[in-house]
Every structure is written in C-alpha cells, then in structure tokens.
Amino acid sequence: MPAVSTAARREWLSFFRQGGWMLLAGGLAGVCFSLTHTPASQMAVPSEYSVFTTLLDSLYLLMIPAGGLQAAFAQMAATALDEEARARVRSAAWRVLAVVTGLWLLVVLATWIYLPALMRTWQIRNPWALAWTLGIGLTGLWCPVFAGLLQGRQRFFWLGNAQVISGAGRLVAVTFAVVVLGGLAAGAMAGAFAGAMASVVLSAAASWRDWWGPRSAAVTWGWVKPCVALTLGLGVGSVMLSADTLFVQAVFSQLPEGSKETAYYMAGGRIGRGLVTLTAALALVLFPRVARSAATGEPTGALKLALGATLGTGLVVAVGCTVMPTLPLKLLYWQKPGFLAAAQLVPWFCWCMLPLTAANTLINNLLARGRFAVVPWLLLVAGGYAGTLWWLRDGFEQRPVFEGFRLVVMVLGGFSVLLLLVAVLFSVPLRGGGTVARRA
Q1: Are 420 and 365 contacting, i.e. CB atoms less than 8 angstroms apart?
Q2: Beta carbons of 204 and 73 less than 8 angstroms apart
Q3: pLDDT at 301
Q4: 42-45: long-range contacts, CB 8 A cutoff, minimum separation 24
Q5: Closest alpha carbon to 262 in 239, 246, 238, 241
Q6: Per-residue pLDDT for 14 more than 60?
Q7: How far, rounded to the nearest angstrom, does the alpha carbon of residue 172 sit from its chain's CA centroid?
Q8: Is 182 or 292 the better-scoring residue by pLDDT?
Q9: Which neighbouring-strand residues pair with 429?
Q10: Mean pLDDT, the chain, integer
C-alpha cells in the first residue's frame, strides 16, 4: 500500500508540474494571442478588423487535421517502446508531411478557383489576406507532427515554449505590421504567419531526433485509421470554436446595421475562446499519459486530475468574467473604448463555452484509449450545430443585432452541453463493467 501511495503521489506531482507549466505556457500564449487584437483593432479601416478576426477563426476549420495529427503522433511516440517502433514513427512522420503538403496544395487550388466568391462573402478587399491565411494553414499542418512527437515523449518544456513563441511572435509581428507600417487585414495576417513559422522551426528543432534518423523500410499504413478517427473526433472541437464566427461574418455583415456590430461579436468571442484555449493545455498533458497507460496496462489517475483542474480553472474565469465583464475587454482594447459594448456578450460566451472545456478533456481521454466508437456521435453533434446555424440564417433581419448575437451564442452553448453529454455517456462505466464506447 505505501508503494502505491508513493506512486500515486509521484504521479500527482508530475502531472501538476507538467500541467502547471503547460497552463503557464498556454496562458502566456493565450495572452499574447489576445493582446494581438489590441494593435489589430487600430486598423485605419474598422471593417478590416472583422476580416482579420474571421480569417483567424477560419484557421480552426482549415487546420481540422492538425488536432488529429498531433494526437496520432503523440500516441505513436508515447507507445514506441523500442528502436524499431521509433523507426516506424520516423517513417510515418515523413509520409504524413508529404501527404498534408499535397492536400494543402489542393486547398490552395480550390481557394484560387473560388477566390471572388470568398472575397465577396467575407468582405475581403486584399487577396493577400487569404494568401497569408493559407500560409498559416500550411504551418498548422506541419507543426502538429513535430508537436505530437514532443507531446508523446512528454517534452512539455519545448512544447510549451513553441506555444509561447507562436503567440509572442504573432503579437510583435502584427503590432509592427499594423501600428508601424499601417497595414490592414493582409498585413496583420502576414504577422500571424511569422509567429506560426517561428513555432514550427522551434518544434522541428526540438524534436529532430524523433523524425530525423533511421527509418523503417517495413512501415505500414496501419496508423492511418486511428489518425482519421482522431482527426474527426478532435476536429469537432474546431467546428464548435469557429462555426459561429464564420456564420456571423457571412450573415450579419450583410445587414444594414450589422456591418459595424460584427466587430463586437468578435471581441466578445475572443474571451470565450481564450477560456477554451487555456484549459486545452491540460488535455495535452493528459493524452500521452492515458495512451501510454493503455499500451502498458499501468493505471493512471490523470483523467480525474485534468478534469478537476479544467473545470476549476474554467469556473474561476467564467465567474470573474460575469462579475467584471468589461475587465478583459479593457485589457485587450484599451485604446478602443467602443469595444466595451461587447461586455454584454462576454458572460454568455464564457458560460456557453465552459461545457466545451470539459467535453474536450473527456474526448481526449476516450480517443487516447482508442475508443473510437464515440466519433460518429461527436460528428452528429457538430453537424447538428452547423445545420442549426444554417437553418437560422434567414431570421435575423427582423431581430435587433445584439439579440441575434445572443441567439447564436445560445445555440453554441446548447450544442456544447450536448457534446459534453455524449462524452460523459461514453466515459461512465456501465453496470456489468465496461463503457458505452467499449460495448459499441
């Protein structure tokens, strides 16, 4: 019994040391990402700020494969217990880098074909804004391979530093592009690309031993199926985080009174999305521990630790933003007091996104254990969410703009709760042993 207690105590200390660092790194990166909107909101043309925010949030969709790729390589690296297995991981890394680059080129071609329609729908003036967005998308497809290797090996020091440099690089570059050079959405997206590229370089350098070296000639494509399942399962979170922004920019910017107010929705959404991003750091620590536990049969209490810390952190932020909703807006938009109009949306965003933080933690646990039976149900929730927004698109002309905004956030909150319920259902043990995921 003492040995078990000692092992449990050691796991607690290790988890909170790594989780604390990832929370700190994620918090610093999140602060930098959020502060990026301070100089960005000073663009000479106010509507360009809404374009910039929309393009940033479109990256959640463009990089849907990123979450699955990082999780897949984290799982492979965590369970590669001998040199032959590590050689197979290196081979898989090179193949995936080639495949995702090819897929990215197809996206570039599709964007070029539909460029006029995209620019008209999102009110984009300069096509270079889309070009830089695509560049960030490419870095977002490369970086998960290197970040997944770092995550699987539990090299969280470098993984956290890569996050920090991405946020700090974006902040510095966007500030220079907008404040110094007077750039608009295109210039700001160029700054965001610079920060993303810095993160890729650091991640690749820190993980070079895991992708550069002897490769297995007998490598198979057996990792493709779990990779697809991880991509689809974790991609649901990207849909939940981005669909509302794209919807609001496409629908409300066309309304006579909505073209200016969309910026307020984007500002309020920054706070809610920052909450999800902050707590996602704990899921990064959780995933490789659970994957290794599933491979070796060693027990782990990481899920309880991660879920408790996620809900605790989320509740503190949500309560704080309810009591002082203007505070985060004053910090982000201190030179633009008009953005305080978004304060009425901040509590809605925080409470509606809080269930999403817990759902993401449970989903990471299920997928790390290879319980992919949950994936179709997650996709059903995401599809229902997108379909509901599409169904509501024609009913906003008769509503006051902010009332329409609240309705969009309420739809997000309702489907976030539904996503959490699905994750809980597949996670709780059933009578007689096992879980819904295992029985499926």
Answers
A1: no
A2: no
A3: 65
A4: 42/178, 42/179, 42/335, 42/336, 43/178, 43/183, 43/184, 43/185, 43/188, 44/182, 44/184, 45/184
A5: 246
A6: yes
A7: 21
A8: 182
A9: 435
A10: 80
Please give the share of the chain, as a percent, with pLDDT higher than 70: 82
CA angle 326, 332, 336 (to 5 degrees): 80
pLDDT confidence tier of residue 432, bands split at 50, 70 and 90: very low
Rounded CA gap, 246 and 250, in Å?
6
Can you tell me the mean pLDDT for 34-46? Answer: 81
d(CA 228, CA 64): 11
pLDDT at 288 over 80: no
Burial class (CB in 10 A: 0-12, 13-18, 19+), 216: middle
Name the region of 82 (left: φ>0; alpha: ψ -120 to 50; beta: rest).
beta
Tokens of 277: 């991003």
Task: At 247, give phi and psi (nearest 5°).
Answer: -65, -45
- Residue 105 has a CB neighbour count (10 Å cut-off) of 12
Q: Rounded CA gap, 316 and 313, in Å?
A: 5
pLDDT digits (tens, 9 = 90+) for 195-208: 899 999 999 999 88
CA angle 133, 173, 124 (to 5 degrees): 35
Listed by start position, the domains of the chain span 2-428
HEC assignment per residue over the chain: CHHHHHHHHHHHHHHHHHHHHHHHHHHHHHHHHHHCHHHHCCCCCHHHHHHHHHHHHHHHHHCHHHHHHHHHHHHHHHHCCCHHHHHHHHHHHHHHHHHHHHHHHHHHHHHHHCHHHHHHHCCCCCHHHHHHHHHHHHHHHHHHHHHHHHHHCCCHHHHHHHHHHHHHHHHHHHHHHHHHCCCCHHHHHHHHHHHHHHHHHHHHHHCHHHHCCCCCCCCCCCCHHHHHHHHHHHHHHHHHHHHHHHHHHHHHCCCCCHHHHHHHHHHHHHHHHHHHHHHHHHHHHHHHHHHHHHHHCCCCCHHHHHHHHHHHHHHHHHHHHHHCCHHHHHHHCCCCHHHHHHHHCHHHHHHHHHHHHHHHHHHHHHHHCCCHHHHHHHHHHHHHHHHHHHHHHHHCCCCCHHHHHHHHHHHHHHHHHHHHHHHHHHHCECCCCCEHHHHC
Angle between helices 64-79 and 258-296 (to 10 degrees): 20
pLDDT in tens, 322-373: 998 888 888 777 767 777 888 888 899 999 988 998 898 888 888 877 788 8
The structure's pTM equals 0.67
